[in-house]
């Protein structure tokens, strides 16, 4: 399939082209494709679902998807799982909990491996969601494991973030440590059918009271069970209410602005890092005898004094 | 699509009604350890589900694992579904309890290799790597 065919197919609603387009963008080869999507973007909210492994993100998402489908809305999902830092491979299993939707043409699920790229993950993920939106899905969702900066970056690229917690995974202090609560617009306490969920709710609410006043909006807390379906309609309503409130407060606009800045920073950083890498390879031998800080100073001077170093792979795809 | 260094994406799927997923999981883990991105979808997948998942995930390879004896019914259906969605070029391989004569028939009708019990896992990974390299040239 040629690229032009892919773009044409994508805009015409062909699923094969959509699958292909997502691969192109994931590989950083979306240069020709992304500009063609421009006027189809920015109409729908994007939201992120994150939380510890096993908290029930995929199951929860599957239940929400079911709810939205009943209302006639279509859904595009990007499910990110970590790559192995050793082999570079990945086992992507988020679909297992969502396969009930696999025959529904109104639902498109794509798995993505994080590939350990610093910064690159968030950019690729954002562009993949662009492709999903351009194809025409009403709801756009990104799911990641709530660990690591790259995954947090992905969440920050969303309009609204759901953090999923579960009972029995340590007390409220654990959740506080994780740093996830700061990015949550909605705290979803999943597995409400299990023992300990009331206790978790009490702990979380108590913790939220301890937050410094005036730092952002306090997240809403929703108790749900993806397994039994309890609380799912209420959660869906809460999501829409939250989205509306964020829009009215001007928070969404600010976030999108901030997001643009972050994306530019990430792209600059990744291009810088490639140059740094190349320079290190070139001068590794020489730097052996330098004291660490002096070595770093030498490298920095070298990097900023001459404009071209190593491979020039700037702006991977995005223009 | 992009060149040879693109990660190989594999869908490992279990069609039919048997619940023996140990083999599928071993193969999935092996391929992951060989640097591939493996999508695993769990048990009891219909031919349509498998094809639609392959479409959405844009995989290079679909690997089927089956122990129920219904491969001569299900496999051709899966092949047909894939073709219907424009995925005829995907490398389709399988493993499980599949008699020799059936293997030959399947391999003659659009399937890649059919692996039997006792196959060294590395052999499967190497086979995939070689085939995909050929396709991408």
Q: Any overview of this molecule?
A:
The complex is a heterodimer of chains A (319) and B (137). Chain A is α/β, with parallel strands linked by helices. Chain A folds into three domains: 40 residues, no CATH class; 208 residues, Rossmann fold (3-Layer(aba) Sandwich); 46 residues, no CATH class. Chain A has ten helices and eight strands. Chain A has a seven-stranded parallel sheet, sandwiched between helices. In chain A, α6 links the parallel β6 and β7. The radius of gyration of chain A is 21 Å and the shape is globular. The two termini of chain A are 23 Å apart. The C terminus of chain A is likely disordered. By secondary structure, chain B is an alpha/beta fold. Chain B has a single domain, classed as Rossmann fold (3-Layer(aba) Sandwich), CATH 3.40.50.280. Helix content of chain B is 45%, strand content 17%. Chain B has five helices and five strands; from the N terminus they run βαβαβαβαβα. Chain B has a five-stranded parallel sheet with strand order 2-1-3-4-5, with helices on both faces. In chain B, β4, α4 and β5 form a beta-alpha-beta unit. Chain B is globular and about 35 Å long. The chains are: A alpha/beta (319), B alpha/beta (137). At the A-B interface, α2, β3 and β4 of A face α1, β2 and α2 of B. β3 of chain A pairs parallel with β2 of chain B, so a sheet runs across the interface.
